Amino acid sequence: MKLSLFVSFISAAALSLSVVGCSGTPEGEESAAEVGSVESALANAPIDTKHKFNVGLCMGDLKADGTCTGYHCSATLVAPNVVLTAQHCIYGIEYAERWCDSRFTNERLSDSPIRVTTSDSSVSGTPKWYDVADVHVPAKSLCGDDIALVTLKTRVPLREVIPVPMALGRDIDRNPPRSVAIVGRGGIDSTLDLETFEFTDDDGGLKRRILENVPVVCTPGTAAGCDVEDYSSPPTNTFNVPSSLFAIGRSLESGDSGTAIFDQRTFRLVPAVIGVAMATTFDANGKTKVGLVTRIDTHRDFIARTMLQALFAR
């Protein structure tokens, strides 16, 4: 299997972090899938200048104009000095034969500084940057722990950005969303060559974009998970979504890793984070198919502890 973890790299060229492996539904157990349409796409979605809690994360050096080279991801301001993103945006991966048996390493993807911008793009204009003080992660499982909380050296003023809450008290198994809203900073198109596993993509300037009413494909409520189409997982061309994740319709492109996922029912009134974008599957044409989302409700203790520490940080 060669599922893609969508970090954007070096002026937004796609970086595919992948390994051959396979995961299937255990014999005798039924899929927990709750299937919906998967025809929507964040690719080339409208540019969003309203939801400034969506920020850009970059691990790299700054050019003379202030734009950042290196690894680019999406992230979300969840407190004046705390940003939520994906762990694979920062740390390397030790791959196993089965993709979900892979684990994160303690080595960062780059020795370059990590920065966060509240500007509309990290690769155009004159971005305003905040330096990162520390990175906190729950554990090292690729499929179960692909989230990270990043603390900033200085707080973002509320007049600049108002943080969004996280729905830590919500049990996704008992109260699954039917559709979601996404604000991300990914590209507008990409294609995976299913023979060479190389990407071609259009980064679209890595600008903040918004997509609403993305259908939820499945919210696995059992250890069996649910099966979704994935032509980067031969020979079965399916990926079994474990209970640590949930799956959404086509909506993610390169650079969307780490972006927050919101329940559509509450997004316009009180947006509250229910998950973090971490990977995508592919259809027979090498186009993104199903987005995979790390649940935050399974990490409520880690998140609450880290947020409390950040509250009293100087």
In short:
By secondary structure, the protein is mainly beta.
Could you explain how this protein is built, in words?
This protein is mainly beta and 314 residues long. It has one domain: Thrombin, subunit H. The protein has 2 helices and 20 strands. It has helices spanning 264-267, 300-311, and strands at 7-9, 13-15, 54-59, 71-79, 82-85, 91-94, 103-108, 114-117, 129-136, 148-152, 179-184, 189-192, 199-202, 209-218, 226-229, 238-241, 245-248, 260-263, 273-282, 288-295. The strands form 5 sheets. Strands 3-4-5-10-9-8 form a 6-stranded antiparallel β-barrel. Strands 11-14-17-20-19-18 form a 6-stranded antiparallel β-barrel. It is globular, with a radius of gyration of 18 Å. The termini are far apart.
Describe the secondary structure blueprint for this structure.
Elements: E1 7-9, E2 13-15, E3 54-59, E4 71-79, E5 82-85, E6 91-94, E7 103-108, E8 114-117, E9 129-136, E10 148-152, E11 179-184, E12 189-192, E13 199-202, E14 209-218, E15 226-229, E16 238-241, E17 245-248, E18 260-263, H1 264-267, E19 273-282, E20 288-295, H2 300-311
Antiparallel strand pairs: 1-2, 1-4, 3-4, 3-8, 4-5, 5-10, 6-7, 8-9, 9-10, 11-14, 11-18, 12-13, 14-17, 15-16, 17-20, 18-19, 19-20
